[in-house]
Amino acid sequence: MGRFTTRSLIALGMVVALGLSTPAIAFAGSGTGSSSLRAFHQELEAFLASRKAIQLTFQSAVSSARATFLSALGKTTSSAHRSAARQAMETAIIQAAAARSAALTALGTRPEKFSSRTSH
User: Fold this and answer.
1) Alpha-carbon span 22 to 104, nearest angstrom
2) Is 77 inside a domain boundary?
3) pLDDT in tens, 16-66
4) DSSP collapsed to 3 states, the chain
5) 102 and 119 Cβ atoms separated by less than 8 Å
6) Is residue 93 predicted with pLDDT exceeding 50?
7) Residue 1 resides in a domain
8) 71-101: b or e for each residue (b if 16 or more CB lie within 10 Å)?
9) Residues 85, 69: contact at Cβ < 8 Å?
10) CA 92 to CA 113: how far, in whole Å?
11) Containing domain of residue 100, as a range?
């Protein structure tokens, strides 16, 4: 009986030691200052900056198309010229939207926090 108790205590001690040390090891590199978190923040900042640049480029193209349209309206008197100017503006806006869509597709999806971990 003494041997069984000794072995049980040793086994229990090993289980407790493993149970306490495993979570500490698992979370050792996941603190707020870890390199993976810093890398995630850098990737996220780069992604957001790229997305903002794409949006600003689109807005600039739309503003330019509208300014060109308004300029053409001031110089023209016929409805055919006004219609052509409107059509040119709409075409420019459609092309700008297509370019924005292509750029956003090329940019990809937003980085995910701790994306290397698998979900259960």
Assistant:
1) 42
2) yes
3) 444 444 444 444 555 555 788 899 999 999 999 999 999 999 999 999 999
4) CHHHHHHHHHHHHHHHHHHHHHHHHHCCCCCCCCHHHHHHHHHHHHHHHHHHHHHHHHHHHHHHHHHHHHHHHHHCCCHHHHHHHHHHHHHHHHHHHHHHHHHHHHHCCCCCCCCCCCCC
5) no
6) yes
7) no
8) ebeeeeeeeeeeeebeeebeebbeebeeebe
9) yes
10) 37
11) 38-108
Identify whether 21 is part of a domain: no
Phi and psi at 115, nearest 5°, equal: -70, -15
- pLDDT above 70 as % of the chain: 67
pLDDT for res 113: 82
pTM over 0.85: no
Domain count, the chain: 1
Reading phi first (left if > 0) and then psi (alpha if -120 to 50, else beta), residue 78 is in: beta
The answer as to whether 2 is a domain residue is no
